[in-house]
Specification:
The chain is mainly α. The chain contains 6 helices and no strands. The longest helix has 26 residues.
Amino acid sequence: MASEPKSPTPAPPGEKRGPKLIKLSVDEVEKLAALQCTYQDAAGWFSVSLSTFKRRMESDDYREAWERGRDKGHVSLRRNQFDLSKKNATMAIFLGKQWLGQRDITTQEISGRDGGPIAISGPKRALISRIAGIRQRARADDDDRGAD
């Protein structure tokens, strides 16, 4: 006797069918964001797929927790940098360049023999000669036009 295929049993009242919903803690999402974790890092922490984590981040609660955590992480990083700049000149210089617009300026002075001007020969003389020739031709053209 062949058995008949079983029809799916309806879900008990109040229960849903499908994969079990994994609860992500909003507080943990915020803490991971404060550590500047990527979505991939956070998905791994919660043992969910990246696509699942991204879907959860579409919710206002999770997205706001993520943004709040990122902001707190930035503040914490700045605080640590300022503390470090008190003991580390390199960090103080870095912060001055980033936030105060300070920069390294190097001036160079090039001079010729015995500190005099740099002598330019060859191309400069040829250029001056060409310019003089153009001026002469322009004057000659002006004179020709004035004679008419």
